[in-house]
Specification:
Blueprint lengths: L2 E7 L5 H11 L4 E7 L8 H9 L6 E4 L2 E2 L2 H4 L4 H6 L5
Parallel strand pairs: 1-2
Antiparallel strand pairs: 1-3, 3-4
InterPro entries: Thioredoxin-like_fold, Thioredoxin-like_sf
Protein name: Thioredoxin-like fold domain-containing protein
Pfam families: Thioredoxin_3
Length: 88
């Protein structure tokens, strides 16, 4: 089963390295969707997901529909992404 990874970003110098880190870690079992909240998305799915997941800070990452714990208190790290199963 594919692991669904959703990245929420403001397309800024703080977010861009995290997006790159996720993209560097992903494997064949990972499906990545990036939501640029500055541009938003046509159908506003990105905004409903922000509300659903409780995103309060950017960048933020959700795996299989759940916001990672690290994204609730600090920026995501490589270790927290690997612990969430990204790249496995």
């Amino acid at each position: 089963m594919k692991r669904q990874i959703e990245i929420f970003t403001a397309n800024c110098p703080v977010c861009d390295p995290v997006v790159q880190m996720v993209n560097d870690l992903v494997c064949d079992n990972c499906e990545v969707t990036t939501y640029d909240l500055v541009k938003q998305c046509e159908d506003k799915t990105c905004l409903s997901k922000v509300e659903e997941y409780g995103v309060k800070r950017l960048p933020a990452i959700a795996v299989n529909g759940k916001l990672l714990d690290c994204c609730q208190i600090s920026a995501p790290t490589k270790e927290s992404l690997v612990a969430a199963g990204i790249g496995k």
